[in-house]
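ok so i was messing around last nite and threw this chain in just to see what happens. nothing serious, just curious
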Amino acid sequence: MNQTQPFGAVMLDIAGKTLTDSEREILNHPNVGAVILFARNYENPEQVADLIQSIRAARDGEILIAVDQEGGRVQRFQAGFTRLPPAALYENEPEIAEVAGWLIAAELLAVGVDFSFAPVLDVDCGVSTIIGNRAFSQNAEKVTQLASEFRRGMNRAGMAATGKHFPGHGAVALDSHLTLPIDERDLDALRHSDLQPFRQLISEGLEGIMPAHVLYSQIDAQPAGFSAFWIQQILRDKLGFDGVVFSDDLSMEGAASVGDFSERAKVALQAGCDMVLVCNNPIAAVEVLNSLPIKNNPDRERRLQKMRGQFTGNFEQLKTSKQWQQAVFLVENFTKNYA
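result:
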């Protein structure tokens, strides 16, 4: 493929299990940088591998393929993939977190996915139904330990990790898909708990981070994903993060207070996001693509290059490996014991 176009700043989705002609055309827009896949795009490993190949072939330039594949409630690819338990179970046997991180990454890489939006670094405070057992623990130190192990497994398989939802979504009861949650804690409270996993994994080389569509009303007037304070002053300057900042989906109601879709994208990028997500709204995606200026960004390009998957073989080859068979055995037995 003649890669003439660098990564754009927009991640979008597609409607079904195969590409339409209009989607092929949209994928060549200069502002496209990535595609996120959902359960509706998945039938089995062979089908999704073909779909990913067609996405890459459609674009004359750089593109990344992503998915939300955490395990538990958030596992977009299921039939043919190993079912992973919710993150909260790993407290029972911490060593399984590294195995699970490797397994989730190895299976995704085998069908052509570059990276998953994982691990969740939120500290569960017992009030958030949208986070809940997606978090590794209600204890910040345990979240840090388990998430670090999970990321180590992902890296061992050849996949970069994306920690979410900065600076912490676990202390608000409301779902940011449906409304804008407000966290009234001050910065010291966040430093002593929610920020700990982010601080440690950044020091270990974390490649990507997704901010929360949460308003921390005692700290800044904008939700974290649209806040230069959170992204530039805290994440970049104080914590020294030099990886990719992905916005959460701009279609979520937690983003609506910022303005229309074009304004949301503009504010997120100005605040310091490298890439914005526009999902489940193709009209809005095209609106954002056409509203943003077309310009190269060397820092974004450098960071996004590190999100590329290290592909070594297909799904059938993976299943013949002793490493995969042993990992499946360990994870499935673990899940039976604790689910």
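not much to say yet. Residues 124 and 132 are 6 Å apart (CA to CA).
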